[in-house]
Fold this sequence. Notes:
Number of helices: 3
Structural class: alpha/beta
Number of domains: 1
Helix content: 25-40%
Order of helices and strands: EHEHEH
Amino acid sequence: MSSPWILTSPASRGIGWALTRNLLQTTKAPILSTSRSSDTSSTKKALLEGLDGVDDKRLTVVQLDVTGKYGFSSPLIVCLLCAFACR
């Protein structure tokens, strides 16, 4: 059985950004977050900024544009979510 994990989408601004930061501070679960931007390292840096004592290895940010042709049904996204859930 795999351990629990959290998906936040999108997490680059607004409610998703605030929710992801709150979850980083209040849980120990790994978090998979999405951003429309291809610069996922900047999104991760912004999410972690000022959060002392949070293990940055718990946060994975991937690019995902759900307004695109495939959205969440993209085979790549499905594989990514399955791989993350089984780690």
